[in-house]
Amino acid sequence: MVSGNIFHFRKNSWPPEEYINRTTLQLLDFDSGAPPEQAWRRKLNTHASILKEFSITFKEAIKMITLGIRLWSYVREEASHGRRAPIDPFNREGKPLASQGVPLGGMGSGSITRGFRGEFRQFQILPGTCEASPVMANQFSIFISREGGHKKYASVLSPGQHEGIGKCTDQGLSSWGWNLSGQHSTYHALFPRAWTVYDGEPDPELKVSCRQISPFLPHNYRDSSLPTSVFVYTLVNTGKERAQVSLLLTWANSIGGVSHLSGDHVNEPFIGKDGVSGVLLHHKTAKGNHPVTFAVAACETQNVNVTVLPSFGLSEGSNVTAKEMWGKMAQDGQFDQGNFNVGPTVPSSAGDANCAAVSASTWVEPNGKCTVAFAISWSSPKVKFMKGKSYHRRYTRYYGTSERAAENLVHDALTNYKRWEEEIEKWQNPILKNDKLPEWYKFTLFNELYFLVAGGTIWIDTPLPAADFVHDNTIKPKLTYNTNSDQNGINNNSFTYEDENFTTSSEEDELEPLNPDSEKDSESDVGSFLYLEGVEYIMWCTYDVHFYASFALLALFPKIELSIQREFARAVLFEDQRKVKFLADGKCGIRKVKGAVPHDLGTHDPWHEMNAYNIHDTSKWKDLNPKFVLQVYRDFAATGDLSFGAEVFPAVCAAMAYMEQFDRDQDCLIENDGFPDQTYDAWTVHGVSAYCGCLWLAALQATAAMAAQLGDVATAEGYKGKFVKAKAAFEAKLWNGSYFNYDSGSSGNSKSIQADQLAGQWYMAASGLGNLFDEVKIRSCLQKIYDFNVGKVGGGRMGAVNGMHPNGKVDESCMQSREVWAGVTYGVAATMIHAGMEEQGFATAEGIFTAGWSEDGFGYAFQTPEGWTMDGHFRSLVYMRPLAIWGMQWALNPIKVVLNAPSINMMDRRLHESKEDGQTSRNETGEGVRKMVHKGKCLVFPCTC
């Protein structure tokens, strides 16, 4: 629990004199037009600096030269087939800027990011493709005419000069009014919403707020899949004259890059229900991808008039040029009403852009207020992967597969956004109003969720076809959980496992679900969900990284989390014997070994061609299988879903059995094999390692607990005994009196302090199981990490460096040992919070905010990378692992673990028979971890309860 207000020393991000004066806030404080007090903020005139990409040292280059040659050859080979390699460090497009903002849309139907200065960029409509450059024709603009006509203003609502708008004399974008200074305009981000406030720009007597709303609604599996966003403009006239205000949305028929020039694109005006009118932009994609239709619309009301221009171009030969369009708006403040009747435009020619415009005009009285709402949606009903398979996206379950679904989407967005905001505020307010939490944590917690939209997410509704793998028939069949009632109405719950039946009783309160289904979400089938490791590492659901990120899905969309675990559980029991060449050593092996957890679900043919990662043979990695077991147990315990547990338990047993081959000295503890055989895939490990060994100990305990709860007493007893032996070996080989050595080898970094050494303990605490080690050792490790990995880098304001020598120097044995990883730092902070070290935990995580998100940092907001070096060079922007900040929230305010863990730390039972019988449970009030009296019958061992 967070005790006291210990974070008062940090200056809030809300100094009024630097952002918005309070009078403006009060004027905008109706219809949610004023931004919240807790938000990430930037002035619109903030310089968007170029980010510094990482580089390897000469020593590292020598070590990696052979790998580099093989990787370069592989990248070229993939390109010859028209495909992009999942990891390609050789081809970079443009220079990344510190200019990102909250993305548009829900999850899994493609995304578009709107930068804090107002530009639309990062188009990810096609799977695995990210068009980072902004489409400069996509803009909001404003035209103001005061009564009497002596005051007029016209401006694009994006400040400064931008690349790609052409020369000031042409007929294109440069002819528009790019005259907003941004000095008095600010951006406020609290995902999934954002506010841009124009405090007297361009009209000194007009206050304008633009509120961006997307349907990211925890536990709402319908609306959260919708590809749409709403922009609500709040207008306040502080002048003495009436003002005619026209807001303009322009949009290019494009999916990013230069796709607007490919030709054959058609625009079509429409008048819809409830005053929702706009333009459909039908986009013909290349390379056999399915078409995409955009809808841009505004809502006509008694006070707001909507008009459209279905088509204009960016060059002199266009029927209507961008310059002519701008001139029409500057003169009249609207387009001709007859434009709604012109029908579809002729298909565009190659090389010509086909853009559309929607205008919403209103009069605002002196001291009056008005609201104008726009919406953008896109309909791409089928998603096609590079090797040919296509699937229907999740939202088609509700909107069908017609290209005109975009029209229905903007209608529903404009008529439902207030309900969405109510749901968002109900979800966020308990955290935002908790005065014990530091301000930076509140908005960073929500804003890191941007990745679940902008992380290349794909959410399909179509059932997956049969896999192309060879099934391993030696694996035991799954358990089946049966609920029957006898003639007296009493439940008799049983598990069927091969030829044996185990019966266990359970009380109703032990089976309370994590989040009871609402009427709107009564469907149990949530389809299949993918998200990328990162926009630079194009692999879906990379599992060693999902280990950190999955807390966000479990807390907010638990059904999606369970569906991902089911897919990996099925994969464990299958084998894919197709040959793959591994780039690190040049050797060949099979793509997917039975019993091994895959590294990822694939790239160009997900679910059917797993393990797109081919640098190392991940069937020899030591962390994937334990991470699978730990995630499965955590999810099983948190949701109370016994049918899920019964379904995946055979895969858990298979995954654990597979790992026994790596215990070479029969001490029940696995060893690493002298190469980077875990998530730190450039950091070599010898013998027993702190990271993988700790994960393995935790997996032994979790397997025993899960077996006990499913009634498999023999398996539970077996893994209990293995744990006791393995723990003794682990401590004997690695404990040095204050922390666990990096590994048991004799290399120069074997005694390094690894920030992530207690990853297994993190999961034990998060799952309601007993500690792996005594509290003295746990706190000693965490304090060492805090003092060295955190405190001795960047003044303690940069996060936790992965490796640190005991002499206080950063471990520079490889690029990963010298990096700060945002997701790992959040995980370490969560472990500290579980251990009662809240102040150290928040100070550790604050380094990620300071270095990554603050105005004094490196500029990584809404593109948090995998990691960075001490001098601020990033590696792999827009990365999955930083979602681990939700592991901190899980530690602070965990949802009750539904299933009973063993009544005491089952693994140390023989040594601690006199311990009090109790259960670690979750407290929904945010008061941390407390003891609860165990009510039900113990499932595993004879006891006296």
Automatic annotation (TrEMBL):
Entry protein name: Non-lysosomal glucosylceramidase
Entry's EC annotation: 3.2.1.45
Functional description taken from the UniProt entry: Non-lysosomal glucosylceramidase that catalyzes the hydrolysis of glucosylceramide (GlcCer) to free glucose and ceramide.
PANTHER family: BILE ACID BETA-GLUCOSIDASE-RELATED, NON-LYSOSOMAL GLUCOSYLCERAMIDASE
Lineage, broadest ranks: Eukaryota, Viridiplantae, Streptophyta, Embryophyta, Tracheophyta
GO biological process assignments: carbohydrate metabolic process; glucosylceramide catabolic process
Source organism of this protein record: Lactuca virosa
InterPro entries per the UniProt record, alphabetical: 6-hairpin_glycosidase_sf, 6hp_glycosidase-like_sf, B_Glucosidase_GBA2-typ, GH116_catalytic, GH116_N, Non-lysos_glucosylceramidase
Pfam families hit by this protein: DUF608 (PF04685), Glyco_hydr_116N (PF12215)
Annotated catalysed reactions: a beta-D-glucosyl-(1<->1')-N-acylsphing-4-enine + H2O = an N-acylsphing-4-enine + D-glucose
